[in-house]
Specification:
This protein is an alpha/beta fold. The protein has a single domain, classed as Vaccinia Virus protein VP39 (Rossmann fold). About 30% of the residues lie in helices and about 25% in strands. The strands form three sheets. The protein has a seven-stranded mixed beta sheet with strand order 3-2-1-4-5-12-8, sandwiched between helices. The chain has a three-stranded antiparallel beta sheet with strand order 9-11-10, with no helix packed on it. A two-stranded antiparallel sheet has the order 6-7. Helix 1 runs parallel beside helix 5 and helix 7 packs across helix 8. The protein is globular.
Amino acid sequence: MREDDRTAELVEDNRRHWDERVPIHTASPFYDLNGFRAGEEVLDRFQLDELGDVTGLDLVHLQCHIGLDTLGWARHGARVAGLDFSAPAVRTATELAAEVGLSHRARFVAADVRDAVDELGADGFDVVYTGGGALMWLPDIVEWARTVAALLRPGGRLYLVEFHPLTEVLDDEHGATVDRDYFTRRPRTYDAPGSYADWEAETTHNTATEWHHTVGDVVSAIAGAGLRIEFLHEHDTIPFRRYAALATDGAYFHYPEGRPRLPLMYSLTAAKPRR
């Protein structure tokens, strides 16, 4: 079997994995759709501060899942498009947009990221946004960066928020001991019943594959696509208990007081030069 064929099989396994988890996530307190319907903020404060005012901007959210963050940006004034390879996720996002009165400024498309330009058009967006837990599902980070650059208008910006790849190689209990090789790029396939939103949920499609991209890989791919890095920030908080030993302030998780900290998330902005 050719490597391209094998990669396509792994991506299809991931699609089935995510399709099955859409109703689990829709019903879970983790995503708290009722809170969103009631008007609660879904975007981290640092994201709002870093990206700034999006009023009147065209924003596309790649790998948008059920559209919560996408619609969060719409509530802050952006015209948004969300793209995800899971058709059930896109249906859920479309229904949620209608429920909260945002259909006039939000649209959702079921497609692979590699087909985003064909589906949405080149040079069409002021902002390309990608939120936490997205890049690890992409086999080719260079292809992703080229897609981002093609979607952006001249002067437009990529805003990326992601779990720090260091978190993928540390032990699950304490987040302090290196368990895996940081520089291994081979795909990692594993069995994952349930969901981070509900570990007790009964699931059938449990095989998942992730691809590890170092910070250097991501930054180099973005720069190689012709975008200019404006900042790279590392953060010591994360929105879920990535390691058992993490403490919480009620909204975010972090290393306990008195312990040395490691980065848990990072964010960056990169701009497309004006012609």
